[in-house]
Amino acid sequence: MTEYIINGKNRLSGKLKLQGSKNASLPVLAATLLTRSKCVIHNCPDLSDVRQSLNILTALGCDCTYEDNTAVIDSTNAFGTEINEQLMCAMRSSIIFLGAILSANGKATVSRPGGCELGPRPIDLHLSSLRKMGAEIFDFYGKLECSAKNGLIGCEIVLPIASVGATENIILASVLAKGKTVIRNAAKEPEISDLADFLNSCGANIKGVGGVTITIHGVERLHGAEFSVQPDRIVASTYLCATAVTGGELTLCEVKPSHLMPVLPYYTAVGCKMKIGESEIKLTAPNRLNSTGTIVTGEYPGFPTDAQPLFVAMSSVSKGASVFEEKIFNSRYRYIDGLNKLGADISVHDSVAVVKGVPTLYGANVEATDLRGGAAMIIGGLCAKDRTKIIDMGHIARGYENITENLVSIGAEIKVQET
Ligand code: UD1
């Protein structure tokens, strides 16, 4: 178990280079299976989820190496069709491999990922879409046995919810399918563009990504490619919120500001000065932040649900009240108990959280309930008086590369201990 010990109230100031995106890396890594050759993926962050993805690829028969944020994957002999329960459970998003394995090898056996810290995580849309493409899927007590004896066949799929994972799974299943696949009400998240750009650079024919309709014309085969993963927009928000609560100043480099458009106006609203360059963002925070007003999470280009805990933590020390409405996941406020333990004044009414800003937080022992909930505790600890201890069951390492080193390099006082 990892514990983070933070002595709060240091003003953060300096420059950080942003890591590559977790949520973009995972589907790109799964997509390498479809190429039956060697792919080189740069800017792949060193995270436990990335290492789990490489373990899955290795178990399926790929040759993988990973060094200095570059993953080299040779899928020439990746004829494996099964992901064991241990690997499936280690990473909920391993369901993303289903479409890729089925497409590459005609069958796949995986276990149901089950619920997670954010509440139930259904995969009905993943399964119904693959079934529509001709897959037969049997669910034996949570073990999914899938096959596509005659190959997958392109069709029209209308998603009732613009699910990111389902959109990615359909893309993975359809690039080598027979004929044309049309996804209506597709998710528009920037991470999906990386998957499509990577696959197109391997010879796929995917059009319309970023809009509501994505069209994929199946091709005979793909070839290997070299690709660089986009910067992580949620990690960017984390460092900006962490700096803002300390009244600090941060220059973030290697950012894609356009991906952050849904969140940037809120930094200005709380009183931060923002300077946006082509691949750089500079934030200068006032001594005390204003409230964010009302934030409602939504599908991209709406406010990202993953940034909600970060902004709740930031608002907990602002002047006045802020209101949050969570529209994507129904159990995404578990971390709030921890912020209240630090002295925040937050009440939750179903999907709405009302944050009454307090002048300061006070150090306490808290828990990282999930990945972004853990990041919210770090933000809370950074602006709390005295010592905050965050007990983490490995959540933070799933999404943040060198977070303590980075925060310490801009003035935070954080120690990590393994117990
Ligand atoms: C991805 C991100 C996650 C982010 C989320 C929303 C990754 C690895 N994870 O998760 O960080 O918070 O997008 O931006 O990229 N749903 C169904 N049935 C399904 C699939 C989804 O009902 O088959 C529902 C979910 O319960 C949720 C909503 O659709 O309420 C959106 O989920 P989805 O976009 O699929 O999220 P993920 O892809 O799991």
Structure notes:
By secondary structure, the protein is of the alpha/beta class. The chain folds into 2 domains: about 1-20 and about 230-419, Enolpyruvate transferase domain (UDP-n-acetylglucosamine1-carboxyvinyl-transferase, Chain, Alpha-beta prism); about 20-230, UDP-n-acetylglucosamine1-carboxyvinyl-transferase, Chain (Alpha-beta prism). It is about 30% helix and about 25% strand. The protein is built from 13 helices and 25 strands. It has helices spanning about 20-30, 50-60, 85-90, 95-105, 125-130, 165-175, 190-200, 235-245, 265-270, 310-315, 335-340, 370-380, 405-410, and strands spanning about 1-5, 15, 40, 65, 70-75, 105-110, 135-140, 145, 155-160, 180-185, 205, 215, 225-230, 250-255, 275, 280-285, 295, 320-325, 345-350, 350-355, 360, 365-370, 385, 385-390, 415-419. It has a 4-stranded mixed beta sheet. A 4-stranded mixed beta sheet has the order 2-14-16-15. Strand 9 (about 155-160), helix 6 and strand 10 form a beta-alpha-beta unit. Helix 1 (about 20-30) runs parallel beside helix 4 (about 95-105) and helix 10 runs parallel beside helix 12. The protein binds uridine-diphosphate-N-acetylglucosamine. Uridine-diphosphate-N-acetylglucosamine binds near residues 187, 189 and 305.
